[in-house]
Amino acid sequence: MKIVIIGGGRVGFSIAREVSGEGHDITIIDNNRANVEWLSLALDGMVILGDGSTLEAQRAANVGESDLMIAATPNDEVNILCCILARKLGCPNNIARIRRWEYKEELHLLREELGLSMVVTPDGSAARELFRLLQFPGFLKRESFAKSRVEIVGFVLRDDSILKGKKLMDLPRLLRQKVLICAVRRGETTTIPDGSFQLEAGDEILVTAPTAELPRLMEQIGLRKKTVKNAMIVGGGRVGESLAKLLSDSGVQVKLLDKDPERCRVLAECLPNVMVLCADGTRQDVLMSENITQMDAVVAVTNIDEENVFVCMYANMIGVPLAIPKVNRTEYGAVCQNCGIHSTVSSKDICAQEITRYVRAMQSTSGQSVLSVYNLMDGTVEALEFEVTGEVPHLGERLADVQLKSNILLACITRRGRVIFPGGGDSLQKGDIVVVVTSRNRVIVELRDIFED
Questions:
Q1: How many CB atoms lie within 10 A of CB 255?
Q2: Distance between CA 290 and CA 256 in Å, rounded?
């Protein structure tokens, strides 16, 4: 497909990298000359210097002949205008990145008039992801499937875990519950394991489990079970505000630090149950004076990655049980891992994943489009959710008689609300919801793509 992206910043670049890696024809419009020069070297696609909200720039990029236009500039109003112009030029599908979630309801009502196919709110999505991680502090990652009946969760195998030294084929007898280990990262190597794979301390593990079984799973494998009762948020931007509201509404005591007096006044008015402090949360003396050592969790969500990483490294060093930074630079994820911070959240990555899912749905020619897609383990693993339609091959056949492509795992099947961890005697039936886990270098657009034939 031909895709035009307006705005070549971090979000635009991340989207371009995701979709161009799947073979699409990409054109980027950006109004910063230095950025255009860098993008020309970093991406395989056309890069145009210009204002994407003008007819001149959109015509130069052949937006009217494109299959999809994505407006990803930092300005919400510019993104909306880009979509209106693209629709007038004849582009059938347009996506707007909208940072102010206050616009979402209005845009939903005006989608047809504005020519919007989809609205993405990265900051709101990042806040919800952080909230989910704080609900189960022992997990590094949580992704929901099958209408939240099933989750893929990540954790690091501790030296005292009952799973240490065990082969995967032994886990059902050991745990006595429905779980499936679908990926393991050991050092720099990520593996889609089989039953003979033996676990070691330090492995980062992705497990598929019914959502209702997560508390019991944490207890069995020795993960931290203590819930977060008080949390400190450093950064009072959109992500910090949204996260503070989610936490306070769930009964968590929240301290929110921001150094902008005017912003603090606004936050105090709209968050009456949150302790809003006008202070520089990146300073150690401020953190100590606000009793950071007594916190169950610290979340750093300022607009500067380096500040967020520093705050969480400091919190981790002084013994705060859970510290999560918001980072947009991919390379900082590895830095955090090496410093003992295993959970990070990236607004741009969440945005890119949502748009990638939409692109894959557009590619589907048989109604087998992906329902959800998530990049895991720093993008080395991908989890996809599909609904089984009548056009899927091998319906009703025993899985033992069906050959899947290499590095593909059928993680679970949800059938009429019942979660099935498939074995050789199971089969796919029309109406099932299935989760497929695969290595990132294998592109799966439709469910039929997992079969060898």
A1: 21
A2: 10
The span from the CA of 30 to the CA of 168, in Å, is 49
Whole-angstrom distance, CA of residue 365 vs CA of residue 353: 21
| CATH 3.30.70.1450 given to domain 361-450 | yes
Decide which of 1.10.10.10, 3.40.640.10, 3.40.190.10, 3.40.50.720 is the CATH code for 2-120. 3.40.50.720
Q: In the sheet where 68-71 sits, what is the strand order?
A: 46-49, 25-30, 2-6, 68-71, 94-97, 118-120
CA distance 38 to 104: 33
Cα separation of 2 and 322, whole Å? 43
Neighbours of 446 (CB within 10 A): 20
CATH architecture of 142-221: 2-Layer Sandwich (3.30)
Q: Where are the domains of the chain?
A: 2-120, 142-221, 227-320, 361-450
Q: Which CATH superfamily is domain 227-320 in?
A: NAD(P)-binding Rossmann-like Domain (3.40.50.720)
- Give the tens place of pLDDT for each residue, 235-264: 999 999 999 999 999 999 999 999 999 999
Contact (CB, 8 A) for 286 and 234: no
**Per-residue tokens: 184:** 């393991």
**Residues with Cβ < 8 Å from 402, sequence gap 6 or more?**
394, 451
Whole-model pTM over 0.70 = yes
Could you give the CA distance from residue 38 to residue 28 in angstroms, rounded to a whole number?
12
Residue 414 and residue 433 in contact, taking contact as beta carbons nearer than 8 Å: yes
Asked whether 298 and 292 are in contact (CB, 8 A), the reply is yes
Q: Whole-angstrom Cα distance, residue 411 to residue 450?
A: 12
Q: Residue 212: how many CB atoms within 10 A of its CB?
A: 12
Q: Torsions phi, psi of 15, nearest 5?
A: -65, -45
Short-list 223, 276, 227, 270, CA closest to 252: 227
Q: Do domains 227-320 and 361-450 have the same CATH topology?
A: no
Q: What pLDDT, on a 0 to 100 scale, did the predictor assign at position 225?
A: 61
pLDDT of residue 358: 84
Q: Are 30 and 16 in contact (CB under 8 A)?
A: no
Sheet holding 253-258, edge to edge: 275-278, 253-258, 230-234, 297-300, 322-325
How many other CB atoms are there within 10 angstroms of residue 230's CB atom? 15
